[in-house]
């Protein structure tokens, strides 16, 4: 049930009680205490889903890499949220941590320049 559907049914989307007063542009719930303009309140409607990636498998994955502590992740998609009100960047009930985007590491390969390859001398490192 979406936020709009639950408000239309007279149910608080945050605590699921029926002790909510719905007025045009303003709601107030006696149970959980939320009040304000429902259009300006941040509701948990979708939550990012991440998959853990082993460090040796990062070359096999595509897309943006994310990191939390020492673990790497890729974004798989989104799932429906819990519908509660949240204050921060994301809903801590559904997502206890949110990994931060990191740059993909580059492999270093040794390649000889054309002139040096003929003589068998100096190799230069090139990011692959």
Short recap of the structure:
The protein is built from two helices and nine strands. It is mainly beta and 128 residues long.
What do you see in this structure?
The chain has 128 residues and is mainly beta. The chain has 2 domains: 1-41, no CATH class; 42-128, no CATH class. It has 2 helices and 9 strands. The chain has helices spanning 3-8, 114-119, and strands at 20-23, 26-29, 35-36, 46-53, 65-68, 71-80, 100-102, 108-112, 123-127. The strands form 3 sheets. It has a 4-stranded antiparallel sheet, with no helix packed on it. It has a 3-stranded antiparallel sheet with strand order 1-2-3, with no helix packed on it. A two-stranded antiparallel ribbon has the order 8-9. A hairpin with a 2-residue loop joins strand 1 (20-23) and strand 2 (26-29). The protein starts with a helix and ends with a strand. The model is unreliable at 123-128 (pLDDT under 50).
Describe the structure using short key phrases.
35% strand, 128 residues, 9% helix, 9 strands, single chain, four-stranded antiparallel beta sheet, 2 domains, mainly beta, three-stranded antiparallel beta sheet, 2 helices, disordered C terminus, rod-shaped
| Domain unit count | 2
- Straight-line distance between termini: 48 Å
Basic shape? rod-shaped
- Give the strand order, joined by hyphens, for the main sheet: 4-6-5-7
How is the main sheet built? 4 strands, antiparallel
Helix fraction bin: under 10%
Helix-strand sequence: HEEEEEEEEHE
User: Could you give the count of β-strands?
Assistant: 9
Radius of gyration over C-alpha positions, nearest whole angstrom: 25 Å
Structural class: mainly beta
Number of helices: 2
Spans of at least 5 consecutive residues whose pLDDT stays below 50 are: 123-128
What's the rounded overall pLDDT mean? 83
Task: Indicate the proportion of strand residues.
Answer: 35-45%
């Amino acid at each position: 049930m979406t936020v709009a559907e639950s408000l239309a049914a007279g149910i608080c989307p945050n605590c699921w009680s029926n002790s909510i007063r719905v007025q045009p542009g303003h709601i107030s719930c006696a149970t959980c205490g939320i009040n304000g303009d429902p259009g300006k309140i941040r509701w948990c409607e979708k939550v990012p889903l991440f998959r853990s990636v082993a460090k040796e498998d990062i070359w096999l994955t595509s897309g943006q890499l994310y990191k939390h502590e020492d673990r790497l992740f890729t974004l798989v998609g989104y799932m429906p949220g819990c519908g509660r009100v949240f204050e921060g960047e994301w809903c801590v009930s559904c997502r206890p941590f949110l990994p931060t985007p990191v740059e993909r590491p580059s492999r270093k390969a040794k390649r000889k320049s054309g002139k040096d390859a003929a003589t068998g001398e100096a190799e230069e490192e090139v990011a692959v």
